[in-house]
């Protein structure tokens, strides 16, 4: 390694670190929170002063108070910063000196980074094009237009400016270290600090210098977080992903991951609720602040462009939750937390609307094929029974029966959608999903009982013989009507549950399902009952149970949103499409619903084995 490279490495690695960096994760988190609060004030306080919005000013006062509390929480290590934080709070409380507050917050952030030894990453993806412009304006005179430092003035400097084309030098640096260098400068060298650049501009500049020696990206980079990219050297990235991916990793930065950020905010709220339930209201306040700064705030601009009213509701809900925690009001904190979870889930559903449409469409298609398959078998069995009894003149009655059942199912679906469009939509969503679960379980039991097709045909034939023997066309109509009505009504009910996520997905899935059912009818008419009916019915039962588990989770979660059920947070992943949420109120019933069919299957197999054993012994 050459002398200039060694010196730059030493200078960049030698940024002062406090002993506090070696302490526990909880304390480090407080340092990060304090920095995040001040960064927020730095950017948003001038805007609040300009707008003169009472809500915005109240929010800024709340953040300033949180900054004072976080500084006190850090104890002696941050004691020297407390007067500066209080001075900022005093001006915020009086709604004064926006430029001074912004400037002092920025300066204090830099001092806190040094004192806390914080490893950071940008809150938003850096703008490499902006970084290129900043480099030409501020750095090219010493480092050269191409970053090689091959300019006359460089020869007069001791030490020489860094050569960003040097693979050995760049292989040992990170964007975070470059960010710190532009933020604080390097004392004793010609490298100055750039206090006039915003934090985002310094991150853009820091990330840009790592692209200067690399070729263009001609592919798609592997998945890597901004935090990883900010704190990884080029050598680290080559070791983990391979040399062939380095250019794309540095040149194609990941977008802000909206789903991950919103999930982080949701998990932070759940943590705050756990802290509140345990009586640790200061801990709940800290968790709420982290949820806002690390979860919602990074993706707030993207959400605002799509639904500004929703963002406003989220901000108000966060403020209400923090006030509840500050007052030590447990019930109020639970209510505010429930509102936040509901709003964040709404934001996540909106952000994943395309995925919801596709998944809902496929589920609808599968359900309609399954229900259509069952209805086709029933109608075909009825018609076959008429032919066998030489009563084909009554075929129209059978057709009238099953068509009437389909019409009733369609009416049930339309009425259900009308009810769910009312003011109590959340209640209706929850109730509809739970009713759908009951219907699905009934269908699963019905399928299990009808897996023997010859037995099923015998039952139908017996009913039809009775109706024909009495000369009752009404009875024959009712047999066909009731046989298909269960399928029709069941489909209408649990499509209501799927329509909670994507009505358009249900519509497209239904259209595809009608086409598939028509093809299925032709297929069955050609093959008759040579199809593996038991296997098909068993597979259908598995789909029914899986759909029931999903809708059970969604139904219980919807009732939690309106306060009908309590929140009992527990560590678990959130998969909204599958109806999985980190809450015991939904997860425990879902686990039981999954276990019951498995237990029934094991008992049935054991009983069958016992009967076979007794038969062989006899």
Task: Walk me through this protein's architecture.
By secondary structure, this protein is mainly α. The chain has helices spanning 3-13, 25-51, 54-73, 82-93, 98-116, 128-138, 140-143, 167-170, 175-184, 199-208, 226-231, 234-241, 246-251, 258-277, 281-296, 300-306, 308-327, 330-351, 353-388, 395-420, 425-449, 453-469, 473-499, 503-527, 533-561, 584-617. It has four domains: 3-13 and 123-251, Cytochrome c-like domain (Cytochrome Bc1 Complex, Chain D, domain 2, Orthogonal Bundle); 19-116, Up-down Bundle (Four Helix Bundle (Hemerythrin (Met), subunit A)); 258-351, Oxygen-evolving enhancer protein 3 (PsbQ), four-helix up-down bundle (Four Helix Bundle (Hemerythrin (Met), subunit A), Up-down Bundle); 353-568. α25 (533-561) packs antiparallel against α26. GO terms for molecular function: electron transfer activity; ferrous iron transmembrane transporter activity; heme binding; metal ion binding.
Quick summary of this structure?
The protein is an all-alpha fold and 618 residues long. The protein has 26 helices and no strands.
Question: Mind sketching the topology for me?
Answer:
Elements: H1 3-13, H2 25-51, H3 54-73, H4 82-93, H5 98-116, H6 128-138, H7 140-143, H8 167-170, H9 175-184, H10 199-208, H11 226-231, H12 234-241, H13 246-251, H14 258-277, H15 281-296, H16 300-306, H17 308-327, H18 330-351, H19 353-388, H20 395-420, H21 425-449, H22 453-469, H23 473-499, H24 503-527, H25 533-561, H26 584-617
Helix pairs in contact: 2-3, 2-5, 2-15, 3-4, 4-5, 6-10, 9-10, 14-15, 14-18, 15-17, 16-17, 17-18, 19-20, 19-22, 19-23, 19-24, 19-25, 20-23, 21-23, 21-25, 22-23, 25-26
């Amino acid at each position: 390694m050459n002398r200039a490279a060694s010196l730059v490495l030493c200078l960049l690695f030698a940024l002062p670190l406090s002993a506090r960096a070696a302490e526990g994760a909880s304390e480090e988190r407080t340092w990060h929170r304090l920095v995040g609060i001040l960064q927020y004030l730095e950017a948003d306080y001038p805007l609040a002063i300009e707008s003169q919005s009472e809500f915005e000013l109240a929010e800024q006062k709340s953040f300033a108070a949180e900054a004072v509390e976080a500084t006190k929480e850090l104890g002696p290590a941050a004691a020297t910063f407390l007067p500066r934080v209080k001075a900022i709070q005093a001006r915020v409380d009086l709604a004064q000196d926006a430029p001074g507050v912004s400037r002092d917050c920025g300066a204090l952030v830099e001092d806190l980074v040094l004192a806390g030894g914080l490893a950071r990453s940008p809150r938003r993806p850096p703008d490499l094009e902006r970084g290129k412009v900043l480099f030409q304006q501020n750095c090219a005179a010493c480092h050269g237009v191409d970053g090689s430092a091959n300019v006359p003035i460089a020869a007069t400097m001791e030490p020489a400016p860094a050569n960003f084309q040097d693979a050995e030098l760049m292989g040992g640096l990170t964007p975070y270290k470059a960010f710190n260098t532009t933020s604080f400068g390097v004392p004793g060298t010609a490298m100055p600090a750039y206090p006039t650049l915003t934090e985002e501009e310094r991150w853009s500049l820091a990330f840009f210098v790592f692209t200067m020696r690399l070729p263009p990206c001609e592919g798609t980079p592997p998945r890597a977080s901004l935090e990883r990219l900010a704190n990884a050297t080029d050598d680290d990235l080559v070791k983990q992903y391979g040399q062939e991916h380095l250019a794309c990793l540095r040149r194609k930065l990941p977008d802000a991951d909206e789903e991950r950020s919103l999930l982080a905010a949701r998990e932070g709220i759940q943590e705050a609720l756990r802290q509140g339930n345990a009586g640790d209201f200061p801990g709940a306040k800290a968790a709420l602040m982290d949820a806002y700064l690390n979860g919602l705030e990074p993706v707030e601009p993207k959400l605002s462009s799509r639904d500004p009213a929703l963002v406003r509701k989220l901000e108000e809900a966060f403020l209400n939750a923090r006030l509840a925690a500050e007052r030590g009001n447990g019930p109020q904190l639970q209510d505010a937390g429930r509102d936040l979870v509901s709003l964040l889930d709404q934001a996540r559903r909106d952000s994943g609307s395309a995925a919801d449409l596709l998944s809902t469409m496929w589920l609808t298609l599968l359900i309609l094929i399954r229900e259509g398959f069952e209805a086709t078998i029933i109608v075909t069995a009825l018609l076959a029974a008429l032919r066998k009894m030489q009563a084909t003149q009554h075929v129209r009655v059978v057709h009238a029966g099953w068509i009437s059942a389909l019409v009733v199912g369609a009416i049930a679906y339309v009425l259900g959608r009308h009810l769910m469009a009312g003011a109590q939509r959340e209640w209706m969503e929850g109730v509809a999903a739970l009713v759908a679960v009951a219907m699905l379980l009934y269908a699963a039991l019905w399928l299990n009982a009808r897996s023997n097709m010859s037995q099923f045909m015998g039952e139908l034939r017996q009913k039809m013989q009775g109706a024909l023997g009495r000369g009752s066309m009404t009875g024959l109509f009712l047999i066909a009507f009731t046989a298909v009505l269960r399928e029709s009504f069941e489909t209408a009910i649990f499509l209501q549950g799927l329509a909670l996520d994507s009505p358009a997905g249900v519509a497209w899935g239904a259209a595809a399902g009608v086409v598939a059912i028509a093809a299925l009818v032709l297929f069955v008419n050609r093959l008759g009952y040579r199809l593996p009916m038991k296997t098909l019915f068993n597979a259908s039962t598995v789909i029914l149970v899986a759909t029931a588990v999903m809708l059970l989770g969604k139904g219980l979660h919807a009732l939690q949103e309106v306060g009908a059920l309590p929140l009992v947070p527990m560590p678990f992943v959130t998969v909204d499409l599958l109806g999985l949420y980190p809450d015991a109120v939904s997860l425990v019933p879902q686990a039981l619903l999954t276990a019951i069919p498995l237990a029934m299957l094991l008992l049935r197999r054991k009983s069958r084995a016992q009967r076979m054993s007794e038969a062989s012994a006899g």
